[in-house]
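Contributing new records

If you add data, match the layout below exactly. Sequence lines come first and carry their own label; structure lines follow with theirs. Keep one chain per record. Anything else will be rejected by the validation script.
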Amino acid sequence: MSEQKSHYCGCLYYSANALARVMTKMADEAFAPTGLAPSYALMLMGINQKPGIQPKQISEYMQLTPSTVTRLLDKLEGNGLVEKQAQGRNTAIFPTEKSLALQTQIKACWQGLYAHYSSLLGEETAKNLTGEIYAAYQALTDSTASETPRIESI
């Protein structure tokens, strides 16, 4: 890659999206052996570990909107990887045997992804960066500011 920096490299929005694109490509490659996109694989891993989980809980731990969780679950159900069971006014999600059989492979792919980016960044940097990014996510989503801040300078 070129040594020339982008004019936008000082912008969090630009930098976060550039990082997300690179990480998405790495994750797609890492999870390819499962035949699943990373988001589906990680969701299955959680469902496999907690059979009977409710979509709202999935939404919370994966930090996805309920409509996104519903769409992902519908696709997983269509592929025979999860079953939905009505429990009163709630829905419980259970893994199928097909899903449980993928668990070891999904974990291996997740570990492979971690090993890949840690080898490029260094393990300490990878851990610190992950923590800092998550802390920034929490600070930005917990913000109660109702105004859109003005950008004074870039």
